[in-house]
Amino acid sequence: QEAGADFITIHARTRSQMYGGHADWEKIAELKRNVNIPVFANGDIVSIETAEECLEKSHADGVAVGRGALGDVTLISRIEQYLNKGKYTPPPTLEEKICTLKQHLLKEVELRGEDVGVKFVRKFYPYYLSGFQGASRLRGEIVLIDRIKDVFEKLDGILVNS
Are the C-beta atoms of residues 126 and 138 closer than 8 Å to each other? Predict the structure, then answer.
């Protein structure tokens, strides 16, 4: 603030926690009480509900979404609609997530070529493909596939079997 910052975004997890533990939103509230510029809270914002809880506990002026948007590209707009208009939009269905994953794969293959593009997207599979029976097994299988056509076939199989 004294250095001229217009706002502060703070991730409420320590370096030693890395990706484990829980964000300490009360620490954000402590910071908020001690500055006169807007404070945005980050950490563990994975749904409309967690955004709302974070704002209640932190008294922040807004939230910043990080990894929570991976696999759910609608999260930021859904949070915005809820906070600004009171409109609750449910998270994407498995079918919608798979459709988005396919688009993601296509764009990465266009950008990087098939070999690199398919391999690059592998790290995102856990975000798109979770929360359903057999998800872990499926991710273990799909991560070994190198051709986009074969990945698409596997993804289509999920929808047939769900």
Answer: no
DSSP string, 90-149: PPPPHHHHHHHHHHHHHHHHHHH-HHHHHHHHGGGHHHHS-SSTTHHHHHHHHTT---HH
Distance CA 22, CA 148 (A): 36
Please spell the DSSP secondary structure of 27-92, one letter per residue.
HHHHHHHT-SS-EEEESS--SHHHHHHHHHHH--SEEE-SGGGTT-TTHHHHHHHHHHH----PPP
Each residue of 35-44: pLDDT tens digit?
999 999 998 9
Structure confidence by residue, pLDDT tens digits, 42-75: 989 999 999 999 999 999 999 999 988 998 999 9
Beta-carbon count within 10 A of 140 CB: 10
pLDDT tens across 116-136, in order? 999 999 999 999 999 888 999
Q: How are strands ordered across the β-sheet holding 62-64?
A: 8-11, 39-42, 62-64
